[in-house]
Design a protein that fits this description.
Blueprint (H helix, E strand, L loop, with lengths): L3 E7 L5 H12 L4 E7 L1 H10 L4 H5 L4 E4 L16 E7 L1 H9 L5 H11 L4 E5 L6 H11 L4 E3 L13 H13 L16
Parallel strand pairs: 1-2, 1-4, 2-3, 4-5, 5-6
Helix pairs in contact: 1-7, 4-6
EC number: 2.5.1.129
Catalytic activity: dimethylallyl phosphate + FMNH2 = prenylated FMNH2 + phosphate
Enzyme class: transferase
């Protein structure tokens, strides 16, 4: 049986613990495989935000590609995927996607995902948001298949610690790919 491919990219914005949790959740699904692309800035941020090494994170992925590998599979629409998740997604990456400036594999894979009308999930990270950020996000959100899911804290699921919040956010980011996280608590109403 062929596995369903999800391209997972990470940029230098804050939120690398969420990337780690997303990779763990994908790994727990036997019918899915992850294709990880980490920017150099993401690798630097990883050391600031976690105790994980780059090697430990790449070991969580099924395949690992460098952002400079512009000719790799995800750069072509004929490379079948379920879509792409960028977590965290910097405003620089948002601007590159918005303008179609595909000068590395992360941006090219996002460009291909949009043109093939596959799900593109962007865990956009910045605060406060400038009018330029808001314009780029707004225009991207109007494209078919693009979902802007900022990693935001929620409290209805009664998180006990930061790991609960990370898990909840990762589960929300993977929902568009039909990955059901076991511990994800949906709002069921009052």
């Amino acid at each position: 049986m062929d596995k369903k491919r999800i391209i997972v990219a990470a940029t230098g914005a804050s939120g690398l613990p969420i990337l780690v949790q997303c990779l763990k959740l994908i790994r727990g699904q036997s019918q899915y495989e992850s294709w990880l692309i980490m920017s150099e800035s993401a690798k630097i941020t990883l050391a600031q935000e976690t105790d994980y090494t780059v090697h430990e994170v790449t070991d969580l992925a099924d395949y690992v590609l460098g952002q400079e590998q512009i000719g790799a599979g995800p750069a072509s629409g004929s490379f079948q995927t379920e879509g792409m998740l960028i977590v965290p997604c910097s405003m620089k990456t948002i601007a590159g996607i918005h303008s179609g400036y595909a000068d590395n594999l992360i941006l090219r894979a996002a460009d291909v995902t949009i043109k093939e009308q596959r799900p593109l999930v962007l865990a956009a990270r910045e605060t406060p948001l400038s009018p330029i950020h808001l314009r780029n996000l707004s225009e991207l959100s109007m494209l078919s298949g693009v979902r802007i899911i900022p990693p935001m804290m929620t409290f209805y699921h009664r998180p006990e610690d930061i790991q609960d919040m990370i898990y909840h956010t990762a589960a929300k980011l993977l929902e568009p790919f039909r990955i059901e996280a076991k511990e994800y608590r949906r709002w069921m109403g009052i």
